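Entry for NDP complex. Fields follow.
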Amino acid sequence: MTDTMKAIAAQESGGPDVLQLTDAPTPEPGPDQVLVRTAATGVNFIETYQREGIYPVEHPFTPGSEGAGVVTAVGENVTSVSVGQRVATSEATRSYAEYFVVDAAKAMPVPDEMSDHDAAALPLQGLTAHYLVRSTFELKPEHTAVITAASGGVGGLAIQLMKRIGATVIALTSTAEKAETARQLGADHVLGYENFAEQVRELTDGRGADVIYDSVGKTTFDESLKATRVRGTVVLFGGSSGQVPPFDIQRLNGSGALFLTRPSLVHYLRDAEERAWRWNELTDAVVAGDLKVRVGGTYPLADTAQAHTDLESRKTQGKLLLLP
Ligand code: NDP
């Protein structure tokens, strides 16, 4: 290990080109942290919001909360993780780099059977899909659920988890190719976005879906309210098309006494037990061959701007990874 490493840094907010490859000091783990040599870093939508300044960050800014790799050093208080162990996390900072540090409690063990790519691709989108369908609205076999961006990272994993539960899945995607992916992942019905509420009502005998998991936001939210059954739940968990503008709560009454929530992963990883429950269910399913992790593209760290461009272009399916 050397004192310096390659890392991405943005000096200001802006488009993908602000993401520049630089030399940076290799970080040192604090007393309760571990240092990880990055095998692969996951690219997530949140980093595009941070890059643009929609979510404020300090500059120079090195993005990245997700990654997998090998532990190369541990802080003095760390007993749960050892040097040489393979770990993955969705809760690091500055993981667009050759090395990153993370709290030992948030470094999750990677089974031997899992590849580095799957280990880096699974944490953030997998844990999100898991909390959405197991906790935010606890799906049962008798439920009908709608999921937006169904061939995407979270969407594709969520379809598979929902089908394991036995629920009926209505997938929304924007192209025929993406629709085919959603079908292959197990969706019962696949629709486009236009007037989807009417079609969801037709598919549910006029009743509406029990739950809508909406990550597209601005362009889908109104339809989501219309597509949900009386006393159903709308889970707004992202804004890929833009953030939903301020909302008059009275509309929930007019829409059928709906429940509306805007969750974040951090609120569903409250302690070690909860993190381990979600991660172990996911990795057990991957190792058993019941959950497919799809990597939609790999990029050298120097091409991080291209990875952001591709993610925002709406053309990708599955997870994008940076390989330092
Ligand atoms: P995806 O792989 O799903 O990529 C985004 C997808 O959004 C696109 O492929 C596209 O699918 C859809 N989309 C719709 N409109 C647009 C648009 N105008 N521009 C770009 N994409 C659009 O990404 P992720 O799986 O990483 O994330 C999905 C969403 O989930 C994001 O909004 C993200 O912020 C959110 N998220 C939320 C978390 C939470 O805890 N709240 C945690 C993790 C992710 P299509 O063409 O089929 O519509």
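NOTE: The chain has two domains: 4-122+293-323, 138-266.
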